[in-house]
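Extended Data, panel c. Modelled sequence:
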Amino acid sequence: MSDDSGIETFIVEIYEKDEKVYGKIVKLLENNDKEALCEKCTGETYNQPILGLDIIKGLEFDGNYYRNGRIFSPEKGKSYKCRLSLEEGNPNVLEVRSYIAFIYETQYWRRFK
């Protein structure tokens, strides 16, 4: 989902590796350019393809939430602390909360079928 507009811009596959949770972009919805590059990325991901980019990294389950990892916004080129959980009573909605210090933003991602 777009950080600013709330429009769905890509599909993220959530997966587990070495007992940690990750999420990578597997389909672009708004920009059909499959060769689109992450121009706002820094370091080794600068100008790398957005398709296939890991945007959720290293979350660990602690009883109620997946936390202690990071989420990356390709639109802003910034990384944030992150917490994931399924919405109470609806296993098809993922609550994605990103943090900077004590300020947070919550998005609700729908399961793609």
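The radius of gyration is 14 Å. This feature is highlighted in the accompanying rendering.
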